[in-house]
């Protein structure tokens, strides 16, 4: 992939202060894009913007404070991209939450509402705002970050996974609704070594890696490289698609063949 893939594009990435979102920001900057990253904590987003500028040598980066479910903050983040850098060509709906661990029968209404709002409604809200502000008229690409969990059953994160399954479906629905001006795709990461998933991989990396066809856990760069392609003009006829990036986890034998 050349460093010119996203030259002249402006991207907005939610949850861009660490983990997968931060790496997508770094990859986009190296590919020539201008980038606005958004997250809830002022300190984290300011530090991430500064460090990304240092790491990539690009000063075309801005950080904004925004809770993805807060419409006014979302609107302000979208406006920052357009006012500061002149357009909004790419939106990455990356931020997510998982306040409930355990079976669905123990889920409370407030935790269900929070998970739905952040993981499922916010990507629709940000897509709508990006569309109104720029993309409907000038075109654009939206990338949602779901999870391979959206295709699986899990004993502990069933509701989170259900919102990711919904996000995979919503991607197809949105692609139908906002084309041909706007493309909408989704990536479904397997286990990636970030803070969010630390409790799952820490102290168990060797065992988990051995169980995968690719014999290693995922890195944030594995997701960022695919995101860069899907948001670039090279993917201009790809929309409504989900791409699983899981080191082969879904290719494992199940049931009586195991
Ligand atoms: N790591 C994995 O194994 C894995 C696997 C499959 C899918 N995913 C998905 O990948 C995405 C990123 O995960 P990650 O592992 O990179 O997470 P992470 O390392 O915990 O980073 C999460 C980012 O989102 C921000 N954030 C959290 N809640 C937010 C909210 N309500 N509004 C705005 N920003 C918010 C955080 O910053 P603040 O705290 O400052 O808000 C941070 O920048 C998520 O959609 C996740 O579901 C991850």
Task: Spell out the key features of this protein.
258 residues; alpha/beta; Rossmann fold; 7-stranded parallel β-sheet; 8 helices; 45% helix; 15% strand; binds NADP nicotinamide-adenine-dinucleotide phosphate
Ligand kinds? NADP nicotinamide-adenine-dinucleotide phosphate
Overall average residue pLDDT? 96
* Computed Rg: 18 Å
**Beta-strand level of the residues, as a percent range?**
5-15%
Give the helix tally: 8
Low-confidence stretches: none
At CATH level 3, the topology is Rossmann fold
**N-C termini distance:** 38 Å
Proportion in helices? 40-55%
Number of domains: 1
Family: Belongs to the short-chain dehydrogenases/reductases (SDR) family.
Pfam family, one: adh_short_C2
Protein name: SDR family oxidoreductase
Short description:
The chain is of the alpha/beta class and 258 residues long. It has helices at 19-30, 42-56, 71-85, 109-138, 158-178, 198-201, 205-210, 220-231, and strands spanning 10-14, 34-39, 61-65, 90-93, 140-145, 182-189, 242-245. The site of NADP nicotinamide-adenine-dinucleotide phosphate has 29 residues, from α1.
